[in-house]
Amino acid sequence: MTPTIEIQNITEAECLGLMRSQPVGRLVFTENALPAIRPVNYLLDGRDIIVRASQETWISRLDGSVIAFEVDQIDPRSHTGWSVVVLGKAEFVTDIDQLVRLSDPNHRPWAPGRHDRCMRLRAAEITGRRLALAG
Amino acid sequence: MTPTIEIQNITEAECLGLMRSQPVGRLVFTENALPAIRPVNYLLDGRDIIVRASQETWISRLDGSVIAFEVDQIDPRSHTGWSVVVLGKAEFVTDIDQLVRLSDPNHRPWAPGRHDRCMRLRAAEITGRRLALAG
What is the Rg, in whole angstroms, of the alpha carbon atoms belonging to chain A? Predict the structure, then answer.
């Protein structure tokens, strides 16, 4: 019997666990009324996504926008994997106590330049889907 | 000397070569006025992205929309990798000769169900960025 592939929804708790396993995700937003996407490294703060960026870049323009953030891991051989999407509003952290707490040495931005902006994606909705081989 | 990371633009020819090396990318679109993203398997037809889908799914609603498609590969250890984004209009292939030509046996959709819709993302713009360690 050929195995078929099933799509299963993932609980929010499991989504958060999967996101903790990956260092890189993709910010999805609108730029000049067109869909845009950029990979970034990130960390989780509770249910929120934290991304560091320099002041001059595209990321600063997201302040106040509703954006999405996606993390996935897909095995092209077995055709299995998962994808988690966080939807919410982007805001910039200015509170110094928060900035200190979020200054995780494991979360150095990979891109060059100064990174004096800290973006929080305040998670309003977290959804996940798993592709799995069914018996 | 600590290596620094540089961002370099990639030529369109190189973008196409990199996309040919990967079976899975991400469709980026707008759903109920909110940013949305879904991983899909795909193939390249010239500069265009071809995705197969069932008639009933979200993908059918993209007909005529401007959407983005992203493929990336990032090594979390070395902090190097690349990301390619294709921007253009989604249209559905109905011409039978084209459908036959595009019925690549290596491009079976992974998700379950019937897949009688064939979407072409007509590439208007292809951009790529490479993160690379600089000397």
Answer: 16
* B32 DSSP 8-state letter: T
Of A7, A74, A81, the CB nearest to B112: A7
Interface ipTM:
0.86
Q: What is the pLDDT of residues A64-81, one digit of tens each?
A: 999 999 999 998 788 789
Give the model confidence (pLDDT) of B41-58 as tens digits. 899 999 999 998 776 678
Structure tokens, A123: 């998670």
Amino acid identity of residue A17, one-letter, is G
User: Which residues does chain B have within 8 Å of residue A7's beta carbon, measured at their own beta carbons?
Assistant: 111-112
Taking only the tens place, the pLDDT of each residue in A84-120 is: 999 999 999 989 888 888 887 766 666 766 677 899 9
Domain total in chain A: 1
Strands (E), A1-135: 4-10, 24-31, 34-41, 43-45, 48-53, 66-75, 80-92, 117-134
Which residues span the domain enclosing A58? Answer: 4-134
Instruction: Find the chain B residues whose C-beta atoms sit closer than 8 A to any C-beta of A.
Output: 4-7, 22-24, 26, 28-30, 34-39, 41, 66-68, 70, 72, 74, 76, 79, 81, 83, 85, 87, 110-112, 131
CATH number at residue B63: 2.30.110.10
Q: Are A86 and A126 in contact (CB under 8 A)?
A: yes
Q: Is the pLDDT of residue B1 over 60?
A: no
Give Cα B77 to chain centroid, integer Å: 25
CB–CB contact A112 B26 (8 Å): no
What chain A residue is nearest to B40 in terms of C-alpha separation? A74
Q: Which helix (H) or strand (E) holds B45?
A: strand B43-45
